Amino acid sequence: MYLLINFLKLNINKMKNIIVLTIGFFIAVLGFSNPLQAQTDKDEITVQVDGLGCPFCAYGLEKKFKEFKGIKNVAIEMETGVMTFDFPAKDSLAIEQIEEKVVDAGYTPVSVEIMRAGGVFETSQKEEMETAEGESIETTLFVAGNCGMCQARIEKAANDLDGVTEASWDKENKELSVLLNTSQTSLEELSATVAKAGHDTKTAKAEKGVYEKLPGCCQYERVD
Amino acid sequence: MKTVFYILIALLLMSSCQKDSSWQLTKTIDLDTITPIGLAIEGASLWVADGDNNRVVHLSLNGEIKKAYEGFERPMHLAVKGNTVFIPEYGADQITKFDGKTKKTLVLQDSLDAPAGISLWEQEYAIADFYNHRILYFNGTETITFGEEGKTEGLFYYPTDVQLTKDKIFVADAYNNRVQVFDKKGQFIKVIGTEEKMNAATGLGVSETQLFVTDFENDRVLIYNLEGTLQQIIEEGLEKPTDVFIDKNLLYIANYKGKNLMVYNHK
Question: What CATH number did the domain enclosing A76 receive?
Fold first, then answer.
């Protein structure tokens, strides 16, 4: 006991210093972490966009997104088609809302990734479904369109249809080539699907309102 | 009778010997990372609007980069007068006057929505106002605007470029796939190019005798006389052409996707 008291008496100053330094350290950490906390009140969003071939329209997409209240740091990489921006976390945009905005602007969102302010990561990437058994045939379909943006939209609409894979649209001859699983879908259904996306085929026409919402460069000559 | 006959033969021979003049490729200037949207030449200076990289680049006529200037929001079809470059900033909704050091905004009595092109003629200027589907024209004294969204004559569907001449205003009516010509009161005169099935008429240039139009999605440049008769189509080597400029006897074509300038002379 005597030895312990002596030890404490001898080392009290050192211990005081240690305690002060420790308290100071924690204050410093808490103090510096506040600005960091302030920076993470924004969600960081990355959208992979397809069809950015025409700069006049691509710059327009960027411009439209800049108009959204609260959005910051909008940038589009033309080469890769990657668009990034920050958005206030408190107003939390859902993946579906972002995809809708991109589609409204006439573009095709391939994927959306959100790094939430709280550190949660969300993505639109879906797991690949297993292909059903059945015969896949290679077939082609005339689809009206004009440009790279049209190509992206047509191919995505086709590929999103269950039973369709390897959709490829040729801008010159307006031909959509696909591998089509006949047990899952049909050419008629494919035709209706691309028409719903805004592109006339010989057997299905896009709705007037949908066609008119296409960007200017995509407004092809309607099929009679 | 014999005399008339000989004269006719002589005329026939002369016409068969006369070769049609046309624009022939003379060189290609590689632009490396520059993605050219607009170009203009003044003296020995070539100015290129590098839209994707938000900058304006000053080059020599051989393509040697003198300096790149950053910080322009999607610069488009620009124009040069003396030492001043007039830059439509699509993203900033303004025309910026730049002399290599300082930037000033061209003061207008109206607001723009994604200006895509500007043309200068003496004290006049005209601006292609993309999202407003119209042209702003200042005649040296007052400003008029003409056009609105539409597909019929006199209306526009996303005009991307404009060129002033002494007495006319030519407009690249991009997604109506045509060029429209107006007088300086904004009155419609004619349409050019509808028969050639253009796909995005994005840029244009006008010389004393010819009109040049970039047919963006079709990878070609169409050349007309000023009455609208097609005279030549340039296709070889073009990849998404966005603008043209005629300087002395040379034609420069900006290849956006090809990232180069193709230079032609008239032979």
Answer: 3.30.70.100
